[in-house]
Amino acid sequence: MTERLFDTIDALREGLIALRRDLHAHPELAFQEERTAGIVEARLRAAGLEVRTGLAQTGVVGVLRGGRPGRTVLVRADMDALPIQEVSEAPYRSQVPGCMHACGHDGHTAIAVVLAELLSERRAELAGTLVFAFQPAEEITSGALPMIEAGVMDDPPVDAVVGLHLWNDLPVGTVALSAGPVFGSVDEIMISIEGRGGHGAIPHRAVDPIVAAAHVVTALQTIVSRETAPLDAAVVTIGTIHSGTAFNIIPDRVEMRGTVRAFTGEIRERTLRRVEEISSGVAGAVRCGATVTNRFGCPPVVNDAAVVAVVRDVAAGVVAGDRVVDLKPTTGSDDMAYFLQRAPGCYLAVGSHNRDRGLDAAHHNPRFDFDEEALLIGAKVLGGAALRLLE
Predict the structure, then answer these.
(1) Top CATH class, 2-183+301-390
(2) Taking Cα atoms as reference points, which of 55, 90, 72 lies closest to residue 128?
(3) Which end of the chain has fewer CB within 10 Å, C or N?
């Protein structure tokens, strides 16, 4: 059945690419994926799947029940775009000002839709159930958890999960996957430094929160450089600093925002604790106060070794064996993590850049695009893996 699926995917190449290009030209931001969800819903219903809509506001789920009882495998795809103005001459470039698919989610959605359609034609041969989950709001790590809370993994109960990410860090024709953590956790940290405002020419009568903030930013760097073991990984980044109204006024307050990333709960918790301790201690040493709050985005993405072994074997039948490589962990985040917390699974990367064609811009870049040959490779690996995991 897998070989026949591969042949059919090749035959539907143009349709797969056309769907991806249509989605690319009409991107939608997190929780605004109305058009995308409508296309997904219509095509799943036409293929005869059981469809639920409105999960996590704009999420769509299609259930494909096979002709015989068996396991249940969930295939996850994310749908949202990014608030970036696309820079491209491609005919399928974004038609929405200030919004583009700069991370490949248009490809992920197209792959999953076409797989659902193809496998629905073979439902009598399937032993088990496939659940296709089209998730909103991955870019703000806010769509997966509410979909799960709405029951996407409960009816029917999911035994395994698979998903993919088109990956411009790797050349097209490559598939990368590894067991264990492959994406980091993400927290947003907010630090408020409180001082006492005054005249810039008379600083001794004020308590300068800008000076305190500068010391705090510098001291926070020691969490990674001097408190985290060299073979472990953590990131502490301050991305914004806002304060002041004029060149000669010392303000009352500085507001900073940043992010913490880690691959384990222990390192995450310790890093967050030290952000608060250092911020309060350093600010206090220069007569200021500090308040630290954080918003948790999602945990690390952790792949299951047994599922990875199955997917790796499938991938070796799609691309040359030496093109199936280990996935180097990234401190980027993905709320696929929540699906993998609840069932064993694999999140794999499908190489998608092609430097010879100028398709090698990084993710989240206004010039991002990918070699569409990756769509066929991704569809084959994801579809083949789902079928194998039903066995």
Answers:
(1) alpha beta
(2) 72
(3) C
